[in-house]
Write a structure and sequence with these properties.
The complex is a heterodimer. By secondary structure, chain A is of the alpha+beta class. Chain A folds into 6 domains: 1-217 and 327-354, P-loop containing nucleotide triphosphate hydrolases (Rossmann fold, 3-Layer(aba) Sandwich); 225-326, Yeast translation eEF2 (G' domain) (Alpha-Beta Complex), CATH 3.90.1430; 370-415 and 427-469, Elongation Factor Tu (Ef-tu), domain 3 (Beta Barrel), CATH 2.40.30; 489-562, Elongation Factor G (Translational Gtpase), domain 3 (Alpha-Beta Plaits), CATH 3.30.70.870; 567-720, 2-Layer Sandwich (Ribosomal Protein S5, domain 2); 725-807, Alpha-Beta Plaits (2-Layer Sandwich). Helix content of chain A is 34%, strand content 25%. The longest helix of chain A has 20 residues, at 171-190. In chain A, 51% of the residues are buried. The mean pLDDT of chain A is 84. Chain B has helices at residues 3-6, 9-19, 36-47, 68-73, 106-119, 136-147, 171-176, 197-200, 206-209, 243-251, 272-289, 306-319, 334-338, 369-376, 391-396, 434-446, 452-457, 464-470, and strands at 23-27, 52-56, 78-82, 94-98, 124-128, 156-158, 160-161, 165-166, 212-217, 220-225, 234-238, 256-261, 266-268, 293-298, 323-327, 345-349, 366-367, 409-411, 416-418, 494-495, 498-499. Chain B folds into 4 domains: 3-98, Rossmann fold (3-Layer(aba) Sandwich), CATH 3.40.50.11840; 106-269, no CATH class; 280-433, Diphthamide synthesis DPH1/DPH2 domain 3 (Rossmann fold); 435-503, no CATH class. Chain B is globular. The chains are: A alpha+beta, B alpha/beta. Chains A and B meet through α17, β22, α22 and α23 of A and α11, α13, β19 and α17 of B. Chain A: Pfam families: EFG_C (PF00679), EFG_III (PF14492), EFG_IV (PF03764), GTP_EFTU (PF00009), GTP_EFTU_D2 (PF03144). Chain A: It is found in: Cytoplasm. Chain A: This is Elongation factor 2.
Chain lengths: 843, 503
């Protein structure tokens, strides 16, 4: 069945100009996996007839059931191109054989960490956009991610079949829709101007945009049609292509091209006249079973059908005809081979993004030149669970050198610091493996420019790592990946049978390894926590945990838990004071909320503990209106020394103050991690040390006296500054037809959400709604929404910001007070908050 | 209850007289201190002038332990310990325990017991606070009457008080001590000598009849036929919710447990708090795994074998590639512990009933030696078993931990895999020499360029010296802007709770 052998595949791997590493990225349900199928089919791994239905790259059972992709799946494909089709290819090549290492990625926002991992190891991206729905929020996100990694994109406008069958739009209208899709995508891409990457925008007339119908397995680029008509009109292909897009009109009666619509009814846009209409005609003829008309038409197009295929009727016939006439694989492959870079080309400009070390050392040079004889540089971007439970393949990309079975490699983990022994192992690769469809094939070695899976390293690689040769001790690691989503939804898990605890612990470790985004942690109360990017992500993780990593041992999962933040509304109403246990030292403090945007600036790392004080002072005084001198007196950030709270020294002329600084900071780190309300992290609070009275003897003002006091006075100042809770809020994007809007608004209102943008997509009956929704209300939101709109609305939720809850948690009976007491109960704390009098001392 | 019998004056006098002791220390917990003069007077009346009695109170550690150091200040021959006791073996002195006699409604208790027996379809094991030991015989008879069966085959088993006096288990004795048994519970039978037939000398004749497993916990001992597991029994605890009870709940965390509150005369079944303690301890163990510097807190100077366990802890910690410091600070409190900011975790070596120290006020967690073993030996897993008494630990921690895996350790605190500092391969070079400190400081100074915050506040320091080097305050700075001496100012006067200028 498979048209190619491992030997063939292995042979092309050495031809670095004939390799394309690409990922397929898109919004959820825009047809990535389906489109991938037709490419896989062309390689002969699955039958052409079932392409579009199999979803080859959805290897997991739950993926198949839900009809969504969850994990990114790699597949290596081999194609032999004809000389004819390659005659216009200007780049370097070695023969006509090509190797495509393709990675199908999930489109749901919850799994965008998978996309990040896929992008790192590829050089090009096929961006799939639904021609009706257009560019959606996730299209935008993944495009940004891709461009950030210097991945060159090509676009395909997918689900063309909807235009013909479902919506039955006219040529000009369809053209406008496509144009808008492409323009929208280009707007995003244009913001990522990168001199090294060059122009990344896509143009149909240059062949970087394809039009496809993944479900039916056909696609075309303007190149296809240009070739067809070039001879007919006697112009060259390039010229023809330009005529087939944009403001070029053709009037068959006058046989003239114009750049404006002449007004004559027969005058039509080039694209409509020569691409859209013929397809439309063929499709309608097929659908109406007008076979007598069909055969001559096909003959004219040079399409020959097999005799048994001629028996088909309706949709099946249409599918078959279109597949034969405009096979998706041809158009898409040609686009990839022509317009996506080969590893050797891509690594020239990607090396800057990838390599952490000096860009002139031998490793950088080897990556830049994609040198198979150079030192090994390999980045492992994800761990793929193997069939034997608990083991993993390390999946990654060889950037230079080659990796071989049995080779000893240096494994540099994410915490590795060059020159130190931390997070560093030397181990040998048991086996190198390449993916061919659903099965893996062992190969002797894999040279640079290819993706590879390795066996035997899973114990030493946590999530990702850089591998080099054993002896290359001065190599720096490849830069770690940044993820665009953060885990905000958490559940507590415990095993049903207490003695299964070791299994649970082991399972959680495995889970953490298999997914780059999930966080497995433990709460102060001793509960195991699994945190994910969203409800769906969490659901999948828990399923994996129970079935794959714990051998089916039963687990009990709590309701989803959302973490809150504690902040203050105003400046403390008075300066509060706390005394040390020996009563000899006093700290005076006030709390105040941070200026708007400051906490976010700290989150983003624009302001942080490692800044040059002068630079920091400049930003603080210019953007946030701080006094310049004050900006230099920031003692620390917290929690974890980097968090969005700080302590500022406002004292004047206090003796020994420097001596207790570390102790106060330690107390602050502690207190800011566990706020006074519900022991949630604090956020956006600035604590000002107003005055300090210290005992004259150093022994009486040691850490033991000052640390607990600092903690108490911080709590006291928080409680006197109108403490408030912050709740996490999602940005929700929903796309739905007009009749579903009522239902959407209803559900959103009921869930405390509010809509801040409603746009109709031009040319479609679809509306785009953007809303804010508290995370705590989002559980079950998708299903409620689906029910309320009879399945027409599908939301995408991404964490957006922290929102202050207006009610006062100190006032009994309010919503915030209820929340505080719930959290305290869950954490096993006293339900009553510790009163201010416990923290504040009087003279 | 009358004074004479509550404090067992005559028995105590007999005990002293038969052994011809001349100096006897009477140890009282704080709550009984007010009775101490009466007790001493009564004893003196019994014993006459030949015996000198000393009243001791305010023990440095828990009042449940025998304060041997205090007693040796007066060179006492023995200690009479009053009130709640943990029955930890002593290391040098003979001790007699007077538990006191708390009142209990035996009939009500027996009825509750019958109720338990009828609802639970498993045998019941009765455990109790030592202050209720006096009512045991009485209870047994009442229960037997109530069930109209003999106690032995009614499905109700009673634990017995091991002894009411403890002979020091010197080194000779500890060598003999057999610490064994698959579930890590030790048999202290050989340690104690049952000198006093009065209270309850249990018959060990079951040894001869059928093989059985012996259990001992907090001064109670009981036996169980081989093949029976503790989980097969329903535990009934008579007494209040004190550390002794917590120990029972934690040690037998797999068992179903009910508590009979003798003061309220009712049965309680909800022990969410105690269960929560176990989970919390689990968290502390996970947290301890991340520690680089460990403080060993000496929480007892009397309990037999404490020096050995401290040594063992040191070795364990060193073996795990961490740094340990031994601290003697009396009873720990948050202020004392916070003086050692560099310690990421403390291991508290003390008697079983004071072992569980946990407070929101502590900056660093305080764990027991058993938890330390779990935390610091790679590859060991928490299986639910819990040992509080460190004597039970000494033998069971043979280093059978498989060390073949080199996989990075998964830290549940940080939610990811972390790299541990691996134990130094050639430890010989890194002995505690005078140079070691200098080297560590030097290394730490090299780190100065890095952000010291992570060393100071995130437990990244690997030794005390490194921590000190990272501190922002490096001693008084002599280069003041103004080198001229400043004129003197008059300071405050008065007491710290309110200086005179503040009144």
């Amino acid at each position: 069945m498979v048209k190619f052998t491992v030997e063939e595949l292995r042979r092309i791997m050495d031809m670095k100009h004939n390799i394309r590493n690409m990922s397929v990225i898109a919004h959820v349900d825009h047809g990535k996996s389906t489109l991938t199928d037709s490419l896989v089919a062309a390689a002969g791994i699955i039958a052409q007839e079932v392409a579009g239905d199999v979803r080859m790259t959805d290897t997991r059972q739950d993926e198949a059931e839900r009809g969504i992709t969850i994990k990114s799946t790699g597949i290596s494909l081999y194609y032999e191109m004809s000389d004819e089709s390659l005659k216009n290819y200007k780049g370097e090549r070695n023969g006509n054989e090509y190797l495509i290492n393709l990675i199908d990625s999930p489109g749901h926002v919850d799994f965008s960490s998978e996309v990040t991992a896929a992008l790192r190891i590829t050089d090009g991206a096929l961006v799939v956009v639904d021609c009706v729905e257009g560019v959606c929020v996730q299209t935008e996100t993944v495009l940004r991610q891709a461009l950030g990694e210097r991945i060159r994109p090509v676009l395909t406008v997918n689900k063309m079949d909807r235009c013909f069958l479902e919506l039955q739009v006219e040529g000009e209208e369809a053209y406008q829709t496509f144009l808008r899709v492409i323009e929208n995508a280009n707007v995003i891409m244009a913001t990522y101007e990168d001199p090294l990457l060059g122009d990344v925008q896509v143009y149909p007339e240059k062949g970087t945009v394809a039009f496809s119908a993944g479900l039916h397995g056909w696609a075309f680029t303007l190149t296809n049609f240009a070739k067809m008509y070039a001879t007919k009109f006697g112009v060259d292909e390039a010229k023809m292509m330009e005529r087939l897009w944009g403001e070029n009109y053709f009037d068959p009666t006058t046989k003239k091209w114009t750049s404006k619509h002449t007004g004559s009814p027969t005058c039509k846009r080039g694209f409509v006249q020569f691409c859209y209409e013929p397809i439309k005609q063929i499709i309608s003829t097929c659908m109406n079973d007008q076979k007598d008309k069909l055969w001559p038409m096909l003959q004219k197009l040079g399409v020959t059908m097999k005799s048994d295929e001629k028996e088909l009727v309706g949709k099946a016939l249409m599918k078959r005809v279109m597949q034969t006439w405009l096979p998706a694989s041809n158009a898409l492959l040609e686009m990839m081979i022509f317009h996506l870079p080969s590893p050797s080309k891509a690594q020239k400009y990607r090396v800057e993004n990838l390599y952490e070390g000096p860009l002139d050392d031998i490793y950088a040079t080897a990556i830049r030149n994609c040198d198979p004889e150079g030192p090994l540089m390999l980045y492992v971007s994800k761990m793929i669970p193997a069939s034997d439970k608990g083991r993993f393949f390390a999946f990654g990309r060889v950037f230079s050198g080659r990796v071989a079975t049995g080779m000893k490699v240096r494994i540099m983990g994410p915490n590795y610091v060059p020159g130190q022994k931390k997070d560093l192992y030397v181990k040998s690769v048991q086996r190198t493996v390449i993916w061919m469809g659903k099965k893996q094939e062992s190969v002797e070695d894999v040279p640079c420019g290819n993706t590879v899976a390795m066996v035997g390293l899973d114990q030493y690689i946590t999530k990702n790592a850089t591998l080099t040769n054993e002896k290359e001790v001065d190599a720096h690691p490849i830069r770690a990946m940044k993820f665009s989503v953060s885990p905000v939804v958490r559940v507590a898990v415990q095993c049903k049978v207490a003695s299964d605890l070791p299994k649970l612990v082991e399972g959680l470790k495995r889970l953490a390894k298999s997914d780059p985004m999930v966080v497995c942690a433990i709460e102060e109360s001793g509960e195991h926590i699994v945190a994910g990017a969203g409800e769906l992500h969490l659901e999948i993780c828990l399923k994996d945990l129970q079935e794959d990593f714990m051998g089916g041992a039963e687990i009990v999962v709590s309701d989803p838990v959302v973490s809150f933040r504690e902040t203050v509304l105003e400046k403390s109403c008075r300066t509060v004071m706390s005394k040390s246990p020996n009563k000899h030292n006093r700290l005076y403090m006030e709390a105040r909320p941070m200026e708007d945007g400051l906490a976010e600036a700290i989150d983003e790392g624009r302001i942080g503990p490692r800044d040059d004080p002068k630079v920091r002072a400049k930003i603080l005084s210019e953007e946030f209106g701080w006094d310049k001198d004050l900006a230099k007196k920031i003692w620390c950030f917290g929690p974890e020394t980097t968090g969005p709270n700080m302590v500022v020294d406002m004292c004047k002329g206090v003796q020994y103050l420097n001596e207790i600084k570390d102790s106060v900071v330690a107390g602050f780190q502690w207190a800011s991690k566990e706020g006074a309300l519900a022991e949630e992290n604090m956020r956006a609070i600035c604590f000002e040390v107003c005055d300090v009275v210290l005992h004259a003897d150093a022994i009486h003002r040691g850490g033991g006296q000052v640390i607990p006091t600092a903690r108490r006075v911080i709590y006291a100042s928080q409680l006197t500054a109108k403490p408030r809770l912050l709740e996490p809020v999602y940005l929700v994007e929903i796309q739905a037809p007009e009749q579903a809007l009522g239902g959407i608004y209803g559900v959103l209102n009921q869930k405390r959400g509010h809509v801040f943008e409603e746009l109709q997509r031009p040319g479609t009956p679809l509306y785009n709604i953007k809303a804010y929704l508290p995370v705590i209300e989002s559980f079950g939101f998708s299903s409620t929404l689906r029910a309320a709109t009879s399945g027409q609305a599908f939301p995408q939720c991404v964490f957006d910001h922290w929102d202050m809850m207006s009610s006062d948690p100190l006032e009994p009976g309010t919503q915030a007070a209820q929340l505080v007491s719930d959290i305290r109960k869950r954490k096993g704390l006293k339900e009553q908050m510790t009163p201010l009098s416990e923290y504040e001392d009087k003279l | 209850m009358d004074f004479e019998s509550n404090y067992e004056i005559s028995r105590t006098a007999d005990f002293i007289r038969t052994r011809n002791f001349t100096k006897v220390a009477l140890q009282f917990p704080d709550e009984l201190l007010k009775e101490s003069t009466r007790v001493a007077k009564a004893l003196r009346n019994e014993l006459g002038k030949g015996v000198r009695l000393y009243v001791m109170a305010d023990a440095a550690y828990g009042s449940c332990c025998v304060d041997e150091i205090g007693a040796s200040h007066v060179d006492a021959d023995c200690v009479v310990h009053y009130g709640h006791a943990c029955m930890s073996p002593t290391s040098t002195l003979l001790a007699l325990f007077v538990f006191g006699k708390a009142s209990i409604d035996v009939n009500a208790c027996a009825k509750s017991l019958r109720h338990c027996l009828s609802t639970a379809n498993k045998p019941i094991l009765v455990l109790y606070g030592l202050e209720y030991a006096h009512a045991l015989e009485n209870l047994k008879t009442v229960v037997a009457e109530l069930l109209q069966l003999s106690v032995s085959n009614s499905g109700v088993h009673f634990a017995e008080v091991a002894c009411s006096s403890i002979n020091p288990s010197g080194d000779k004795m500890t060598d003999k001590k057999q610490l064994y048994s698959h579930n890590g519970v030790s048999d202290n039978e050989e340690v104690h000598k049952y000198e006093d037939g009065n209270t309850s000398l249990i018959s060990v004749n079951c040894n001869t009849l059928e093989p059985c497993t012996k259990y001992s916990l907090g001064g109670l001992i009981w036996t169980m036929p081989v093949g029976h597991k503790m989980e097969d029994y329903l535990l009934l605890w008579i007494g209040s919710e004190n550390p002794a009870f917590t120990n029972v709940v934690l040690t037998f965390n797999n068992c179903e447990i009910v508590r009979y509150d003798a003061e309220e005369s009712n049965l309680l079944k909800d022990f969410a708090d105690q269960r929560r303690i176990l989970k919390r301890r689990y968290y502390l163990v996970e947290k301890a795994k991340d520690a680089n510097i460990v403080g060993i807190l000496v929480g007892t100077l009397g309990v037999a074998g404490y020096l050995r366990i401290i040594q063992q802890m040191k070795e364990l910690i060193e073996g795990a590639g961490k740094k340990s410091y031994t601290l003697v600070m009396g009873r720990p409190n948050s202020a004392k512990l916070a003086n050692f900011l560099e310690c990421d975790v403390f291991v508290y070596v003390s008697c079983a009933q004071t072992a569980l120290l946990d407070s929101k006020e502590f900056l660093a967690p305080v764990i027991t030696p058993f938890e330390a073993v779990l935390a610091f030996s790679r590859g060991s897993k928490w299986t639910g078993e819990y040992v509080i008494n460190f004597q039970d630990l000494t033998a069971s921690t043979t280093s059978d931990v498989v060390n073949d895996t080199e996989e990075a350790r998964f830290s549940f605190i940080q939610g990811g895999y972390v790299e541990d500092i691996r134990p130094l391969e050639n430890g010989g070079e890194h002995k505690e020499t005078s140079l070691a400190l200098a080297e560590a400081t030097e290394k730490a100074l090299n780190l100065q360029n890095q952000c010291t915050d992570s060393v100071l506040f995130k437990g990244k320091a690997t030794s005390g010296a490194e921590f000190f080097a990272a501190r922002s305050f490096q001693g008084l700075n002599m280069q003041y802007e103004n080198p001229l001496p400043q004129s003197y100012v008059i300071g405050r006067t008065g007491r710290a709770s309110g200086y005179e200028d503040e009144k």
